[in-house]
Amino acid sequence: MKHFLDLASCSTEELDNLLETALLLKREWRNGGNRPILRDKTLGMIFQKPSLRTRVSFEMAMKHLGGSAIMLGPQEIGLGKRESVPDVARVLSSYVDGIMARVFDHSHVVELAEFSRVPVINGLSDSYHPCQALADIMTIREVFGRLAGLRLAFVGDGNNVAASVALVCAHFGVTFSIATPEGYEMKPSIREQACDLAKRNGSTLEMHTRPQQAVADADVIYTDTWVSMGQEAEAQERIGEFTGFQVNRDLLRFAKDDTIVMHCLPAHRGEEITDDVMDGPQSKVFEQAENRMHAQKAVLTHLLA
Ligand code: CP
Ligand code: NVA
Question: Over the chain, what is the mean pLDDT?
């Protein structure tokens, strides 16, 4: 694995290694601190969109491992506008040891990787959010102590987060059952990739139009915003289309009693998720957010050490 751009191009074995390393680095950190495996290494972080978790968890991950990070916001480098993506990749990779990029167009992280001398990590694109999915599978593993045979129901937009969660589930034999409004399904190409992978690992991918069907027997219920970054102009229309796809107390009644609730955050409380569910005993959203840092340490040590 040279880069970490999406979960379709990693092998299940590589992901399993990342998961084990993440769990180990979390224990190590809780027991007093990580060893400085990335001493003197620097991560360049390109952000075309806002971020709390990705930005801070990567920066702290580098710091805990003895390295540092440089934040490059949207006004700073003008990726693809002020300067071409290949030129940014060539120049930035001559200074830093790794690049993390949050972009709109997924082809931009692919292009960065193509022209970079150092590893490139996708910190969210319009198509995928692999770092999120790695932290999520880590969280599920911590809660249940196992993965194969579990059922995850995704309720909402078949977007970047859904795509990466579908793929990570397929790698680990977790059945992925998604309910989306018509017109908001996952892309057919991603669906096919996830289906093939799931079949190989003994799980399935199910598509529904009713959230109640998707969450039946679910061990995990997962949701994401109805209006992703860059879709602000469609907000009113989307909020209308997603009515009925809220994760609330009523919906939880259709799942198992001990189902857990996950959300990549930021949450739009009162839209895709209610306060009582998000703050309730079944919610794992803040554990998930913390695990972003531990999971990314695994990615960073694997690619940069
Ligand atoms: N989940 C996530 O990626 O959060 P940020 O947008 O705050 O980084
Ligand atoms: N789907 C959301 C995820 C944010 C972490 C977005 O792209 O804005």
Answer: 98
